[in-house]
Amino acid sequence: MNKSRETRVASKKTEPRNRLNIVPANIQNEFGVCGWILTILSYLLIFVTLPISACMCIKVVQEYERAVIFRLGRLMPGGAKGPGIFFIVPCIDTYRKVDLRVLSFEVPPQEILSKDSVTVAVDAVVYFRISNATISVTNVEDAARSTKLLAQTTLRNILGTKTLAEMLSDREAISHQMQNTLDEATEPWGVKVERVEVKDVRLPVQLQRAMAAEAEAAREARAKVIVAEGEQKASRALKEAAEVIAESPSALQLRYLQTLNSISDIKGTYFVQKIINYIYSAEKNSTIIFPFPIDLLSTFLQRPAAKV
């Protein structure tokens, strides 16, 4: 007795699953007496009203469409019809066309609290298609709408476990994770998720200003380091040049001539007139320094030796 009760309970539990999977072998035998009477009357009406009824019986679906036919509320055997011509009985048959092309929709911006407690607004685009027309009609009321709602919740659940840095840098990984999750969840609905793309991650204005200030401070720090490294290299080069000049007095004279050449970029009398204008100009208070080699005065500064 207990075993029989357990088998009955198990059969009741598996009954909804069998209804979802729909085994078409015994569909014709489940119409009952009324169903068969209506079917026979419908066929008689079609024959009586020929050829007018042929226009109502012949239907066409495109290459990218399939037609799911129901007769007296029950799914017809053979699965979805199409592409091309198929026949229906107007009085007892109803059908629904299903588009198999890739469809897309935008996930509205979702306010998400990241793992590091930052509020961001993220939106995405989902591309999907119907992989099984029969299941998409029998197992879910509106496959596209259900997929859209599921995409919103999936986007929140996945991004809620990510930090702000991961959201900004690992968009491709987030898209793949979201695609796999949606594809697994929508498989019983006959939906195949082809691609998911995260469009934009909008940050609060205050956070944008803080990040901009941080980036500017980092750039200034790098600039100071570069300037310091340049000064260090320049000081080393000056030290080496000073050592070379100290070893050769003639090199010091050549350096002196190069300095005069760089100062006197304008030659001739115009250079002298320019110097005079600088000296007697009342508007410009400038000091002109002329380098003069002390070595030339060394001969004059030498004192004669004291006579004994």
Automatic annotation (TrEMBL):
GO cellular component: neuron projection; plasma membrane
Pfam families in the record: Band_7
Transmembrane regions listed in the UniProt entry: 36-61
Keyword Repeat: no
Protein name (database record): PHB domain-containing protein
Family listed: Belongs to the band 7/mec-2 family.
Subcellular location: Membrane
Keywords: Membrane, Transmembrane, Transmembrane helix
Keyword Membrane: yes
Primary subcellular site in the record, as a coarse category: membrane
Limits of the Band domain: 56-215
Residue ranges of coiled coil: none
Superkingdom of origin: Eukaryota
